[in-house]
Amino acid sequence: MSKKVIYGIYDDDDVILQAVKDIREKGVHIEEVYTPFPVHGLDHALGLKPTRLAITSFIYGCVGLSLGLLMMWYMMIQDWPQNIGGKPNFSLLSNLPAFVPIAFEITVFFAAHLMVITYLMRCKLYPGSTACSPDPRTTDDMFLMEIEAHGNEAEIIALIKETGAVEVKEEKIA
Amino acid sequence: MHYESPIREPLILEGKTLHDITEDVARPIEGKANKWWWALFLLSLAAFMWGVGSLAYTAGTGIGVWGLNKTVGWAWDITNFVWWVGIGHAGTLISAVLLLFRQKWRLSINRSAEAMTIFAVIQAGLFPIFHMGRPWLAYFVLPLPNNFGSLWVNFNSPLLWDVFAISTYLTVSLVFWYMGLIPDFAMIRDRAVKPISKKIYTILSFGWSGKAKHWQRFEELSLVLAGLATPLVLSVHTIVSMDFATSIIPGWHTTIFPPYFVAGAIFSGFAMVQTLLLVMRKVVKMEAYITIKHIEYMNIVIMVTGSIVGVAYITELFIAWYSGVEFEQYAFLNRATGPYWWAYWAMMTCNVFSPQFMWSKKLRTSIAFTFFISIVVNIGMWFERFVIIVTSLHRDYLPSSWSMFSPTFVDIGIFVGTIGFFFVLFLLYARTFPVIAQAELKTIVKSSASQNKK
User: Domain segments of chain A: what residues?
Assistant: First the structure.
């Protein structure tokens, strides 16, 4: 059985949002949607799970805070305590006020950079990665819906046209 | 869904559609530079070269070639450092704070403001590094083990806090900016016809294709980065102000410094954004996106922060008198009436008096007047830092060591050089980067473009 993908191309974000809802209601699985900008509510309409990036960022921030405090405690109190300007370094607690700024900066540094790295890895974005959008106009002003057909092409094409697509394309895949 | 009242003025004019935005953002990149661009670029490059020469001379001979003496140990270098860091505050403020407050007018200006931030922080970073005298030993500020030649760094020192604050700020601003750029580079890539530019933008766009899941993550990432960058941007100038506030120099040793510096930074940053964007919107034809409304909003920010700075100046004077400390009182009397009176009154006129014109709707919607005030504010904020640093130092506790500061051609060369370097970077950016965050701007076409407002 040959597999085919059907691309429905739309020119309006509200139309494709409604189309996604209608088509999914019919029990048809939508493979992917490519849009030129973030369409609000599209992730919900497609039934995508909420992203956990914010949670990872929180964890990275906690790691950064702990490592930052550990570093300052080790360098200033454990390894080589000094008496600078009549202000000796005896314990983490008594030195904590002076450690607040750098502890904060390291927390932000870890939370931001590690979250960005996680995002790039999860989305497989890196220099040299190739774009997989079937139509280059999806970064301009077109919205593309991709549905896999298993012998029911005519049905799907009709469905896409019905929901207001301006263009429908078919492509065979191995 | 985002709903906006039809009464509110449109943020995108001339009936621009999604495809028009693509065309307009891609035009400066795909087109050729005009004579004005080349003239400005060569001028900036010449200034930059003077700066490179001055920096090389400083590094080769030592910082004795600057106008510093043993009383005034900090002058133009730290003035310029604080000035550039301050300018570097508007970008993140616009993109992060205004994102958290859901201010849609940020979308046309955030990309350029963030570019300005990054380029300004690069200039700022040069000054402390060269002030070290041996810039090749700059890695001594990093927490490296003792066998690298020094003891561990002192984590109680505000100067070290600065190292962490500025480097965190620079790198976080950079990735925040770049994450927003990826979808826009993808747009340029998909239009590119020349093989070389296609190749370059393919690499820069990291293979972005606009999948629904990726956009979902993108929005979460932007929101969390904005949430992290907001306290970060406030912490950076707070920590810069602590370089002064934690010392015991009269005129520096004040608790008002952190909020006062942050307000001043936003003030000068917005002024620099105005200076750059008023020219850029004309040259790259972005008048439909950077509208009078945007300019007016920024002028209101300038007016508010300028007034906060004014209140801070007056509070400083009051507290100096109220404290009863004669050294403190003298420091402020000397600022206003001593040998540097002209710097003090230049600062007062430029920063406190001039933004008050913005109460008038007619003046704050005038492009020529806004440009003039933005330059005045930039000058005023440079004088503020000069006043704080030099007039506080030049007459210390010991009258026999009182002295004056005058810059040498090397001081001037480095300062002019950083301005040149800044404009070189900004001009190159304006020709090769999407100067408007077009993907995000496209989300407000339905709610805020002029044709949908009727």
Answer: 3-50+137-173, 53-122
